[in-house]
């Protein structure tokens, strides 16, 4: 990275030059964003991953800009037009749009009306008119008549074409029109006449005759209109008032001296705006508005994905998982505490077989045989019916029942990853296993699925796919490293997201583990093929080893800092284990005593915090949630009902909530709170339990309108979800259940 760009980045992001320079140097050395945020806080000034990522993106932007400058300079130089002044302008440029404006007059073009006029020898006539002197245009034009230019009219038209293109390439002209687009552009869409009555077009009927200020058009609306345009139902334009734009251009280029040449310039301005400037700048704004819409949609998708990946894990429990179905039955699998498949079969409790008694006996038998501790049920077809069946069984012991979001499970079951894991099993077994493993550890299982298939975004197929993938990959990497990974149980698909590890190294770790047994300490990682010192530095702190000989191997303390903890223990006359177990010992530590040139205040604070609960999972514990037992289908939902639900998707215009029927309801942003809400994500989180009021039911269109306004003061949405399935409030329980619990408590404390 050319150091001249670093101050620009620092100023743009309101950071110190030292912070930006250090991140640039660390990045050049191969440091990942999670590593810099966690283990190089002294260098970054304690910047978080979001800010570090912004610096990295700016470094990429200016790196690309620098390469583009080289191309521009070489092209202009090859034309013999590169002056020292022009070179300095290009080299000092820090904006890609400005660079392209500078380059535009020199950019190789296809044949244009202006270039053809130049070939016909009309450049001198254009220059003469440009001066707007006392020259008589028609008289002057007679001197340029040739075999190619037969009339005065043709000569003047050619000269105006040259002038129109010249104006369209002027930086001040382009900036003037851009300013008008920025302040006054209107987004317009209309239906293609022949498509208006088509059934497929009806989903875009809100945009058949639509207009809105471009600056106020939200992301989801822009993407919807563009999708309609792409599918051939809509036409989209971005318009400005031509009179305002032409007036601004005339102020720049007309001398207003009443000359006849000035009239030719005025005509060229009008033509140049319609034919060249307006389409060019409109295209810029089409692209920039699309990018802004993409950025917002990708940001929402990324945040939703982060919340889903960090959903509460059940942990190491023995699980029975069900992938529900009617005609084909419910696929059933039993998993041990590590997620290994130990049994699979199928039960048929629902129509048309209706073998509910037999299914209940099978479930009761398997729970006893495999000492099952929890049951996970996919939330798709027949999910509610299967949940009702399971909750009605007396297992003779406490067995927690969870509904599990199965979005993307079918994608996993047919994937190469699933075939590699379960080559002997069919896709139905693999899908059920995925549901069970999601309950045990959502993060470990969801990393195996293309994030776009998980279903927590809007318009994911309409946004830039490269940027979407890059953003989602960063989210997965961030979540994996935030939680940490068990080195002795993690799959290669999880390991490949650990800081510094490639797919090849992840595979090598798994193969080394299979051949040599479990890792006893972090140092053994250095024996893995292709594991160099730099890679070890990047990954070691994020990998955990349970029951390791050295207690810090199951913590986020980096091996490079072990000596600090060991010195603390030595100074207190105890072991590292004693230091972890005894809070009074830790209080005696004089943190300033251990600060050095390489170990700063931030690192010491992180170490002491980790010693309190080494290896702890930052995700909250899981809690049980139950839908309203009286609601099974959309026909059961009535306006005015207050029902519990789970947030399944968050968008800028509202929140989708699963209330236990096969169609999610929508809480429009205006219905989220009794007070104004600008961003739904500030009110609710993904997989959060909420109490909602039904405001609209359209069975034919399968639409449910919901509100949280009435429940704003007392509903469980005020409490952030602590798990995959949060616990319902008392309002969510049938009255007889609550009364029974109250009676039990009275007896207990009587």
From TrEMBL:
<dbReference type="InterPro" id="IPR037027">
    <property type="entry name" value="YqgF/RNaseH-like_dom_sf"/>
</dbReference>
<dbReference type="GO" id="GO:0003729">
    <property type="term" value="F:mRNA binding"/>
</dbReference>
<dbReference type="InterPro" id="IPR044146">
    <property type="entry name" value="S1_Tex"/>
</dbReference>
<feature type="region of interest" description="Disordered">
    <location>
        <begin position="709"/>
        <end position="737"/>
    </location>
</feature>
<dbReference type="InterPro" id="IPR055179">
    <property type="entry name" value="Tex-like_central_region"/>
</dbReference>
<protein>
    <recommendedName>
        <fullName>S1 motif domain-containing protein</fullName>
    </recommendedName>
</protein>
<dbReference type="Pfam" id="PF17674">
    <property type="entry name" value="HHH_9"/>
</dbReference>
<dbReference type="InterPro" id="IPR012337">
    <property type="entry name" value="RNaseH-like_sf"/>
</dbReference>
<dbReference type="Pfam" id="PF16921">
    <property type="entry name" value="Tex_YqgF"/>
</dbReference>
<dbReference type="InterPro" id="IPR003029">
    <property type="entry name" value="S1_domain"/>
</dbReference>
<dbReference type="InterPro" id="IPR018974">
    <property type="entry name" value="Tex-like_N"/>
</dbReference>
<dbReference type="InterPro" id="IPR006641">
    <property type="entry name" value="YqgF/RNaseH-like_dom"/>
</dbReference>
<dbReference type="InterPro" id="IPR023319">
    <property type="entry name" value="Tex-like_HTH_dom_sf"/>
</dbReference>
<dbReference type="Pfam" id="PF09371">
    <property type="entry name" value="Tex_N"/>
</dbReference>
<dbReference type="GO" id="GO:0006412">
    <property type="term" value="P:translation"/>
</dbReference>
<dbReference type="InterPro" id="IPR050437">
    <property type="entry name" value="Ribos_protein_bS1-like"/>
</dbReference>
<dbReference type="InterPro" id="IPR032639">
    <property type="entry name" value="Tex_YqgF"/>
</dbReference>
<dbReference type="GO" id="GO:0003735">
    <property type="term" value="F:structural constituent of ribosome"/>
</dbReference>
<dbReference type="InterPro" id="IPR010994">
    <property type="entry name" value="RuvA_2-like"/>
</dbReference>
<dbReference type="GO" id="GO:0006139">
    <property type="term" value="P:nucleobase-containing compound metabolic process"/>
</dbReference>
<dbReference type="GO" id="GO:0005737">
    <property type="term" value="C:cytoplasm"/>
</dbReference>
<feature type="domain" description="S1 motif">
    <location>
        <begin position="640"/>
        <end position="709"/>
    </location>
</feature>
<dbReference type="Pfam" id="PF12836">
    <property type="entry name" value="HHH_3"/>
</dbReference>
<dbReference type="InterPro" id="IPR012340">
    <property type="entry name" value="NA-bd_OB-fold"/>
</dbReference>
<dbReference type="Pfam" id="PF22706">
    <property type="entry name" value="Tex_central_region"/>
</dbReference>
<dbReference type="InterPro" id="IPR041692">
    <property type="entry name" value="HHH_9"/>
</dbReference>
<dbReference type="Pfam" id="PF00575">
    <property type="entry name" value="S1"/>
</dbReference>
<dbReference type="InterPro" id="IPR023323">
    <property type="entry name" value="Tex-like_dom_sf"/>
</dbReference>
């Amino acid at each position: 990275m050319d150091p001249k760009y670093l101050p620009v980045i620092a100023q743009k992001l309101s950071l110190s030059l030292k912070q930006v320079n250090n991140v640039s140097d660390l990045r050049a050395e191969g440091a990942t964003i999670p590593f810099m945020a966690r283990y190089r806080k002294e260098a970054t000034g304690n910047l978080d991953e979001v800010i570090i990522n912004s610096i990295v993106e700016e470094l990429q932007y200016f790196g690309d800009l620098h390469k583009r400058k080289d191309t521009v300079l070489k092209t202009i130089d090859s034309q013999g037009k590169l002056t020292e002044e022009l070179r300095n302008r290009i080299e000092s440029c820090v904006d890609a749009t400005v660079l392209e404006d500078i380059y535009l007059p020199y950019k190789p073009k296809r044949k244009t009306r202006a270039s053809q006029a130049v070939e016909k020898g009309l450049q001198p006539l254009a220059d003469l008119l440009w001066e707007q002197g006392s020259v008589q245009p028609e008289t002057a034009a007679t001197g340029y008549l040739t075999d190619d230019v037969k009339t005065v009219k043709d000569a003047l038209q050619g000269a105006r074409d040259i002038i129109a293109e010249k104006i369209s390439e002027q930086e001040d002209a382009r900036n003037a029109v851009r300013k008008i687009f920025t302040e006054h552009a209107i987004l317009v869409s209309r239906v293609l006449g022949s498509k208006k009555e088509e059934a497929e077009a009806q989903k875009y009927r809100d945009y058949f005759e639509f207009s809105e200020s471009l600056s106020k058009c939200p992301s989801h609306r822009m993407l919807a209109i563009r999708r309609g345009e792409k599918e051939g139902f809509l036409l989209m334009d971005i318009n400005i008032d031509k009179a305002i734009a032409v007036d601004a251009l005339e102020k720049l280029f007309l001398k207003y001296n009443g000359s006849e040449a000035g009239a030719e310039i005025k005509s060229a301005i009008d033509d140049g705006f319609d034919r060249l400037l307006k389409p060019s700048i409109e295209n810029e704004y089409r692209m920039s508005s699309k990018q802004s819409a993409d950025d917002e949609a990708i940001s929402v998708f990324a945040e939703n994905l982060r919340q889903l990946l960090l959903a509460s894990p059940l942990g190491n429990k023995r699980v029975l998982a069900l992938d529900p179905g009617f005609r084909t039955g419910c696929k059933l699998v039993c998993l041990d505490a590590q997620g290994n498949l130990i049994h699979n079969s199928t039960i048929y409790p629902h129509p048309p077989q209706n073998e509910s008694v037999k299914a209940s006996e099978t479930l009761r038998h398997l729970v006893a045989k495999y000492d099952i501790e929890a049951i996970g049920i996919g939330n798709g077809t027949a999910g509610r019916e299967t949940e009702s069946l399971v909750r009605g069984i007396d297992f003779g012991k406490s067995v927690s029942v969870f509904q599990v979001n199965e979005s993307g499970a079918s994608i996993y079951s047919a994937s190469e990853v699933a075939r590699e894991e379960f080559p002997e099993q069919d896709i139905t077994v693999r899908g059920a296993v995925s549901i069970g493993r999601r309950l045990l550890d959502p993060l470990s299982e969801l990393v195996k699925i293309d994030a776009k298939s998980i279903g927590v975004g809007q318009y994911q197929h309409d946004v830039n796919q490269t940027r979407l993938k890059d953003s989602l990959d960063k989210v997965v990497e961030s979540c994996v490293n935030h939680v940490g990974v068990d080195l002795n149980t993690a799959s290669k698909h999880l390991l490949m997201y650990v800081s510094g590890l490639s797919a090849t190294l992840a595979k090598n770790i798994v193969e080394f583990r299979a051949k040599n047994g479990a890792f006893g300490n972090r140092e053994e990682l250095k024996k893995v093929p292709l594991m160099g010192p730099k890679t070890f530095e990047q990954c070691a702190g994020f990998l955990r080893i349970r029951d390791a000989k050295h207690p810090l191997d199951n913590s986020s303390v980096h091996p490079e800092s072990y000596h600090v903890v060991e010195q603390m223990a030595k100074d207190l006359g105890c072991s590292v284990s004693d230091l972890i177990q005894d809070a009074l010992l830790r209080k005696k530590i004089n943190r300033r005593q251990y600060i050095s040139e390489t170990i700063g205040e931030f690192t010491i604070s992180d170490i002491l915090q980790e010693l309190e609960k080494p290896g702890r999972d930052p995700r909250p514990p899981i809690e049980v949630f139950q839908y309203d037992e009286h609601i099974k289908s959309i026909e059961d939902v009535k306006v005015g009902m207050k029902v519990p639900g789970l947030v399944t998707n968050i968008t800028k215009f509202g929140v989708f909530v699963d209330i236990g029927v096969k169609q999610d309801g929508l809480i429009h942003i205006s219905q989220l709170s009794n007070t104004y809400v600008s961003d739904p994500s500030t009110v609710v989180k993904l997989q959060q339990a909420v109490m909602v009021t039904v405001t609209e039911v359209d069975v034919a269109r399968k639409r449910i309108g919901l509100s949280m306004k009435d429940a704003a003061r007392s509903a469980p949405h005020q409490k952030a979800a602590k798990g995959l399935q949060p616990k319902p409030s008392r309002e969510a329980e049938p009255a007889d259940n609550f009364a029974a619990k109250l009676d039990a408590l009275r007896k207990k404390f009587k």
